[in-house]
Design goal:
By secondary structure, this protein is of the alpha+beta class. The protein is 59% helix and 9% strand. The strands form two sheets. Strands 2-3-1-7-6-5-4 form a seven-stranded antiparallel beta sheet, with helices on one face. It has a two-stranded antiparallel sheet with strand order 8-9. Helix 24 packs across helix 26. The protein is globular.
C-alpha cells in the first residue's frame, strides 16, 4: 500500500503545477499590463489569462480517448513536457504574442493534468484509501498556489519586479515532474489489463500493494472489463451443501464452487426486498410513491446508503488489513484450476500458428486464471470452478454455476449483511450479478457452445469488433449514461457555485472590508498587499484539506458535500448582507473577511475535490478516460463561462447580486447531491458501475414480474 501512496503523491505534482501557474499569472498580470501597455487593450489582457483555459479546454476534448488508447502514463509525461516548454517560453516572451502562445501550451499541460491525475490515482489506489489519495491533487494544488504567492510576494519587494521570471520559473518544478513521471510512475494496472498486458499489470500491482499475492485483484480487474447493463440485484443465504449441515435448500439453489476439488457452497435465493434484508429498506424506499422526495431520489443513492449503513461490524478494519468479510473467508481465497496456472495472459500469448490450442503456458508465472478455459467446461462440476476473494469495502468477488437450459458461469459481487446469520450456518448476503466478462462462443464438433474462456477483450476477432467493439457504443449503455449525467452535472454546478468569483475578487472584497488598508500601513504597495492577502488565504486552505483527506474515506464523499454545501450557502448569504446592509466598519470587515475564509476553506473540503473524485470512480475501465474527458470538458466550459460572465454580471447586478446568484446555485447543488449523488467510499470501481447499471433500469420491486426479471 505504501507504493500506491507514493505513486499518488508523485502524480499529484501535476496539480501542484496548476496551482503554481494560477497564482503566478494572478501576480504577474499586474506588471505585464504595464510593459505591453494593455490598460487600453482589455481584450488582450483578458486573453493573457484566458488562453490557458482555452488550451485546457481544447486538449481535454482529446485527452480521454487518447489515454484509453495509449495509456495514462504517456499522457502524464506529455503534461510534464508541456509544462516545461511553456515555462521556458514564458521566461523568454519577447512580445505579447509569444506570451499568448506560451500560455496556450501551458493550458495544454494543465488540461492533461487536471483530467488524468484523478483517473490515474483512482485506478492505482486501494478502495479503502482511494478518497484520501484522490484528495491529494486538491492539497498539492493549494500548496502550489501558496508557494507561488510566497515567491511572487518576495519578487514584488524588488525595485523592478520581473514578470518573466515570475512565470518562467515554472520550468524548474516541471522538470522535477518530468523526471518523476518518466523514471518512477508505472502505468495504470487497470489500463494494462484492458489491453491484455497481464504480466505488466501483475508486476505493477505487486509494487503498489507491497505483496506478491495479487491474483485476487487481477481477477477483479479482468472481470470488471465486462461490466454491462445486464446486472441484477439478488440476495442469498450462503452456506454448506445440504448433506453437510442438513440445510433445506430448494431447486432454485445456486452452487458456488470453492477452490478445492469437490468442495462447493450453496446459495439459496431470498425474495428480493424481503423484510429484514439489507436491501429491503432501500428497495422499499425507492419503490414508494408517497412523497415527491421519495419519487425523485435516485435508486443508486438509496441502495448504496443501505450498503454503507448495514455493512458488517469491522468491515472497514478488515478492509484496511487487506482482507474481506470474516464470514466469507471460508468460501476460499483464490481460484486454482488443477495444480498450477495453465496460462499467463498477455498480448504475446495470443493465438499463433505454432500453437494449435491457441494459448501458451508460462511455467515461470504464478498468475492464476480468474475463470476456466471453455475446453474444461464439461468437467466443471467435478473440478474447481469458482471462488471468492475480498475486494475491499466488505465485498467479495465470486462466480456461480447454474445448470439447466440457461447454464453458465456468472460473476457475483457478494456483500455480507450486518444483521447476523439468518440460517443455521448460513450467511445472509446481497449480490450484484451479471454475465461474466469472459464469456465466448466456440464451436466444437459442429455445435455452438457458450462458456467462460480465455478470450480477452483486447484480442477479439475483427468480426466481434464490428459487432460491439466500438467504445463510443459503450457510452450509450444505460449505466454509463446514468453516471455521465451525474458527473457532468456535478462539474457544472461546481463551477457556478461561485469559487472563481470569490477567488478573483478576494483582494477587492477584503480591500472594501479594510484589511488591505491596514496592511498598507506597514509600508507595502497595493500589489504586494493583494498578493500577501491571497497567499495567506491559500495557506488557511491547507489544514482544511487535510481534514477532508482524513474524512473522505470515513464520513464519505456524499456526507462531506451535504455538510459543507450549506456552509457555502451561509457564507455567501453573509457576503451579500455585508455588501447591502449598513454596519460599522469593524463589523463589516469581520463579516466579509470571515465569510471569504469560511467559504474557501469549506469549498476545498467538499465541492472542490469531490466532483473530480466521483468522476474518476463511476465509469467502467474501458471508457473511463473518454467519460472523464466529457466531464472535464464541462468543467472547463463552465470555468470559461463564469470567467467571462463575471464582469457583465457585476455591471448588471453588482457584487451582492453576483454572490446571491451563486448562493442560489449552491442550493440547487445541495438538492442534486441529496437526491442524485451516491456514496462511493470504500467500494471497488467495478462494483460502483454495476450499481449505476442497476439504477439506470430502476429498482425492482416485489412483484412476480420483477422477481422473474431478477432471477
Amino acid at each position: 500500500m505504501r507504493g500506491a501512496v507514493l505513486v499518488a503523491i508523485a502524480a499529484a505534482i501535476g496539480n501542484m503545477l496548476q496551482g503554481w501557474d494560477n497564482a503566478t499569472i494572478a501576480g504577474a498580470v499586474l506588471y505585464i499590463k504595464r510593459e505591453f501597455h494593455l490598460e487600453s487593450q482589455p481584450a488582450i489582457e483578458g486573453l493573457v489569462i484566458a488562453t490557458s483555459l482555452i488550451g485546457a479546454t481544447v486538449i481535454t476534448t482529446f485527452s480521454g480517448p487518447v489515454s484509453d488508447s495509449v495509456g495514462r502514463r504517456p499522457m502524464l509525461i506529455a503534461s510534464s513536457l508541456l509544462y516545461f516548454f511553456s515555462g521556458l517560453m514564458m521566461l523568454w516572451s519577447p512580445n505579447v504574442y509569444v506570451l499568448l502562445l506560451s500560455r496556450l501550451v501551458d493550458g495544454f499541460g494543465v488540461g492533461l493534468a487536471v483530467t488524468l491525475v484523478p483517473v490515474y490515482i483512482s485506478e492505482t489506489a486501494p478502495p479503502e484509501i482511494r478518497g484520501l489519495l484522490n484528495t491529494l491533487p486538491q492539497f498539492t494544488g493549494s500548496g502550489g498556489m501558496f508557494l507561488s504567492y510566497c515567491m511572487i510576494f518576495a519578487m514584488t519587494l524588488a525595485p523592478q519586479p520581473n514578470w518573466r521570471l515570475m512565470l518562467g520559473v515554472l520550468f524548474l518544478p516541471s522538470l522535477l515532474y518530468l523526471l518523476v513521471t518518466v523514471c518512477y510512475l508505472p502505468e495504470s494496472p487497470r489500463w494494462l489489463v484492458s489491453k491484455g498486458r497481464m504480466k505488466e499489470a501483475r508486476a505493477v500491482l505487486q509494487m503498489l500493494r507491497g505483496r506478491e499475492d495479487v491474483e485476487g485483484e487481477m481477477a477483479l480487474l479482468v472481470e470488471g472489463l465486462g461490466t454491462g447493463g445486464d446486472t441484477a440485484i439478488e440476495e442469498y443465504i450462503v452456506g454448506p451443501p445440504p448433506d453437510a449441515q442438513g440445510l433445506e435448500y430448494n431447486e432454485a439453489n445456486v452452487t458456488l464452487y470453492g477452490p478445492e476439488r469437490g468442495m462447493s457452497w450453496v446459495a439459496q435465493p431470498v425474495p428480493l426486498g424481503s423484510q429484514g434484508s439489507m436491501l429491503g429498506s432501500a428497495i422499499g424506499l425507492a419503490s414508494r410513491q408517497g412523497s415527491m422526495l421519495d419519487h425523485l431520489k435516485d435508486p443508486v443513492v438509496a441502495l448504496l446508503d443501505s450498503v454503507h449503513d448495514l455493512k458488517p461490524p469491522g468491515a472497514d478494519a478488515m478492509s484496511m488489513r487487506g482482507g474481506g468479510s470474516m464470514l466469507f473467508s471460508n468460501l476460499g481465497s483464490m481460484l486454482s484450476f488443477h495444480d498450477k496456472a495453465p496460462v499467463d495472459w498477455d498480448e504475446e500469448n495470443v493465438r499463433s500458428d505454432d500453437d494449435k490450442d491457441g494459448w501458451r503456458s508460462d511455467d515461470d508465472s504464478n498468475l492464476r486464471t480468474p475463470l476456466l478455459d471453455a475446453r474444461g467446461h464439461s468437467s466443471l462440476l467435478g473440478e474447481a470452478a469458482a471462488t471468492t476473494m475480498g475486494i475491499g469495502g466488505g465485498w467479495q468477488l465470486a462466480w456461480k454455476y447454474t445448470d439447466g437450459p440457461e447454464s453458465g458461469v456468472k460473476r457475483m459481487y457478494l456483500h455480507e449483511e450486518g444483521s447476523g446469520e439468518p440460517g443455521a450456518g448460513g450467511v445472509h448476503a446481497a449480490a450484484l450479478v451479471s454475465q461474466s466478462a469472459l464469456y465466448s462462443k466456440t464451436k466444437q464438433g459442429g455445435m455452438e457452445m457458450e462458456g467462460p474462456a480465455f478470450v480477452h477483450p483486447a484480442v477479439v476477432s475483427e468480426e466481434d469488433k464490428k459487432v460491439g467493439g466500438a467504445r463510443w457504443r459503450e457510452l450509450l449503455e444505460p449505466g454509463v449514461r446514468h453516471a455521465l449525467v451525474c458527473g457532468v452535472t456535478m462539474q457544472i454546478l461546481q463551477q457556478f457555485s461561485g469559487i472563481n468569483g470569490v477567488l478573483y475578487y478576494t483582494p477587492q472584497i477584503l480591500n472594501q472590508a479594510g484589511v488591505s488598508v491596514l496592511l498598507s500601513s506597514l509600508g507595502l504597495s497595493a500589489e504586494s498587499t493583494s498578493i500577501l492577502i491571497s497567499g495567506l488565504t491559500t495557506l488557511l486552505m491547507l489544514p482544511t484539506i487535510g481534514v477532508a483527506m482524513r474524512l473522505m474515506d470515513v464520513s464519505g464523499r456524499r456526507s462531506l458535500l451535504l455538510w459543507t454545501i450549506p456552509v457555502l450557502i451561509a457564507s455567501l448569504a453573509v457576503l451579500v448582507a455585508a455588501s447591502v446592509v449598513p454596519m460599522a466598519a469593524t463589523a463589516h470587515a469581520a463579516l466579509a473577511t470571515g465569510s471569504v475564509i469560511v467559504y474557501l476553506c469549506c469549498f476545498v473540503m467538499g465541492f472542490g475535490p469531490i466532483p473530480n473524485i466521483l468522476c474518476a470512480e463511476i465509469f467502467p475501465t474501458r471508457v473511463r478516460g473518454m467519460c472523464i474527458a466529457i466531464c472535464s470538458l464541462a468543467f472547463w466550459l463552465g470555468d470559461i463561462a463564469v470567467a467571462y460572465s463575471l464582469p457583465v454580471m457585476l455591471n448588471a447586478v453588482g457584487l451582492a447580486g453576483v454572490f446571491g446568484i451563486y448562493a442560489v446555485v449552491c442550493c440547487v447543488a445541495l438538492g442534486f447531491v441529496a437526491l442524485r449523488v451516491p456514496e462511493t467510499k470504500g467500494l471497488p470501481l467495478e462494483v460502483i458501475i454495476e450499481f449505476f447499471n442497476v439504477g439506470a433500469k430502476g429498482l425492482p420491486n416485489n412483484s412476480p414480474a420483477a422477481d422473474e426479471q431478477c432471477h
